[in-house]
Amino acid sequence: MNHSIYSADRTTHLKIVVVALVAGIAVAGFGISARVNSDESYSQTARVIKAGQPVTVTSSGTSVVR
C-alpha cells in the first residue's frame, strides 16, 4: 500500500483519477436532475419593493456616566 501520492505507482494514480471522474459525474448528474425536476418550470416573476417613510438616524456620541 502506498502512503504517499509521490511514491504511488501507475495503477494507483489511475484509480484516483477514475474515482474522481465517477464522483464528478455523480455530482453533476445529481445537480442536473435536481434542476430539471423543479416546480418553477423556468418562470420568473418581477417583484416590486416600494419605499416607505423616510427614517432619521441620529447619535449623540456622548456616554452617560452616573
Folded structure, characterized:
Keywords: Membrane, Transmembrane, Transmembrane helix. This protein is mainly α and 66 residues long. It has a domain at 1-38. 41% of the residues lie in helices and 0% in strands. It is built from 1 helix and no strands. The chain has one helix at residues 10-36. The mean pLDDT is 79.
What does the secondary structure layout of this molecule look like, with pairings?
Blueprint: H1 10-36
Uncertain residue segments: none
State the major sheet. Answer: none
Range of strand content: under 5%
Task: Quote the average pLDDT.
Answer: 79
Number of helical elements: 1
SSE order, as H and E? H
**Alpha carbon gap, first and last residue:** 73 Å
Number of strands: 0
The rounded Rg comes to: 29 Å
Q: What does the overall shape look like?
A: elongated
Alpha-beta classification:
mainly alpha
Assign a percent range to the helix content.
40-55%
Quick rundown:
This protein is mainly α and 66 residues long.
Main features:
0% strand, 1 helix, mainly alpha, 66 residues
